[in-house]
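[Protein data]
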Amino acid sequence: MNTATIKSRGWLPVLLGVVGLLSGCLETEEKVPGRWYTPSQLEQGEQVFLQNCARCHGAGAQGTQEWRKPLADGRYPPPPLNGTAHAWHHPLAMLKNTVAEGGVRLGGSMPGFAGTLSEAEQEAAIAYFQSKWPAEIYAAWLQRGGLK
């Protein structure tokens, strides 16, 4: 087909749409320097975290002050996720599992978000709280096999 035929049959918008889709598939967003996530994930993660996690973990992922001390029912309060507690000891796969399945099996009371948030939203929330980790904590997490 030549250009005149494409225009006369109304194919130009369709052709341009297909080209746009294909070019979008080829583009990849750069990662945040030194991190596994992208700026878009971080931006989405802030919203997801603030809407779903901040009520318990704090807007800055700072957790509760007495997070090491069990409550009267034996469960632990929400820990900091900002790199000052133990979240950085866990690989990404375990962090994802905890967000999806909840923290009850770990002695906490966090609900699972598998039925509430998409996998992409869950990963974005993790990206947000990991963005609060100082570079040395993130590097230690990587050394421990964090991306596994």
In short: The chain has a mean pLDDT of 88. The first helix runs from residue 3 to 8. The CA atoms of residues 42 and 127 lie 6 Å apart.
